[in-house]
Design a protein that fits this description.
This protein is an all-alpha fold. Among the domains are: 51-104, no CATH class; 107-152, no CATH class. The protein has 5 helices and 2 strands; from the N terminus they run ααααββα.
């Protein structure tokens, strides 16, 4: 059994000591906190379980090729883009993590609403009544009360 098949199939075999040695070698070669965290997350038990989710479009579980590329790249701490300056003025490194915190990132509102819709649909599928933005909620600071769900 080759090392790659061990990592994919997760069967214990005679090559386990070699795999552990390789893992220790890779871990020792990581110099940034981001790469160390990504490596630890990716090598944790059951970290790849999301790959076993059935791609059911009606449940919004179907990812296109680009979404899979970004998800795997984020999980493994790989470079996802060319370093550049964001239109907000902040520098963006090759990991592309700035897009998660940038207030001016394109698609931020769309992702927010898609996630709210996914949570609302999940509640509805489970038979739990919920309202994404209930009437009568007002904030004194002028912000919208997004993400509020009522559960009786």
């Amino acid at each position: 059994m080759c090392r790659t098949s061990y990592l994919v199939s997760n069967h214990s075999g005679t090559d386990r000591p070699d795999v552990l040695e390789d893992k220790a070698l890779v871990k020792a070669s990581l110099h940034t906190a981001h790469h160390q965290a990504s490596f630890l997350a990716a090598s944790s038990q059951q970290s790849g379980d999301w790959l076993f989710a059935l791609p059911i479009a009606s449940c919004r579980l179907k990812l296109d090729d680009e979404a899979v590329r970004v998800a795997v790249g984020l999980r493994l701490g790989l470079d996802l883009c060319v370093p550049h300056n964001c239109h907000c003025g902040s520098p963006v490194d090759a990991c592309g993590l700035h897009s998660f915190v940038c207030k001016r990132a394109p698609g931020r509102s769309a992702r927010h609403h898609a996630l709210n819709n996914l949570v609302a649909c999940s509640f509805a599928s489970a038979g739990v009544p919920g309202t994404k933005e209930p009437a009568g909620l007002f904030r004194s600071d002028g912000k919208r009360p997004d993400g509020v769900s009522l559960v009786p």
